[in-house]
Amino acid sequence: MPRTALRVRRWAAIAVLGGLLAGCGTDDGPAGAPAAASGAGAGSRTSTEVRPIEAATRITDAKGVTVSLPKSPEKIVCLVALCDDMLVELGLTPTATNSQVLAHPRFLGKEEAAKIPVVPGGFLSPEVEAILSHQPDLVIGLEDTHGKLAPALKGATTFWPVQPGSWQDSVGYLRDLAALTGRTEEGEKAEKTFRTALAGAEREKSGKTSLIVFGSDENFGVATPETDVAAGLFPKISHYPWKSRGVDGAYSLEEILARDVDVLFVETLSFGAPDGKLSDKLAGNPLWSRIPAVKNGKVHEVDSEVWAKGRGTRSLGVVLDEATAALR
Length: 328
What we know:
Radius of gyration: 19 Å
Number of helices: 14
Oligomer: single chain
Structural class: alpha/beta
Helix content: 25-40%
Strand content: 5-15%
């Protein structure tokens, strides 16, 4: 798999492993509530309870990062799709972005998304001068990817490094941004909507075996609950027997074939001009056609901007809707 594709996924593995080493557990109860003894596995039920959010100009997120602002931010530049996701959930739009998730019809749609300025340099190397040209009050990016920009942004704006490793982290970040922007009711509503959707999907859990694969060529990867936010939902809604094998671990088609996968979700990651669907490329391997999902027409190419990169409650809501429909 291309090095860039690996990096898109690698940050999640690092984030989760770091959280485990720090002893920071997550649960399925209201964000900020004490961790449940049963943990966040498939067996724990998702609560639909939502605690009130209070407006604030200073927050400390679940990763221990403190963000302090003189006033509610009006201009926010997004360097990661989670930021765009949260803003749309709160009824706001970014001042500038380097994500394509806004073009999805459940976000702004192509026409409105095209009006948002794009930060040049791409996801890995956004240009500092371009970011600052928008005079942002707040810049949100991934800690392991964009943390290197912090020194250049210091003094000119506030940089908030985020690193979600689970849907609970994503909910926590949403609540924090709702507090900072004063969009407390919108934040509570978005959290409630997502929790209700997840709890409903849990109650109707499918007995089918599912799998998410990603990549840009036949050297694909498997999304695991330990390293991928969207995949973290799947043990709750289906049989998902895939575990992380470390940052560089991989599953073979032979292993996948042995698991009798009923439904396959495919994320084609393109870097530059699109050059075809991952599922079409994998079809060149004779083992691919023997997988039950392939034989039965249960292979679903999904929007990687939402499934692989979104990671916020709106993106995860789309994942739940599409996944549960396919798993029926």
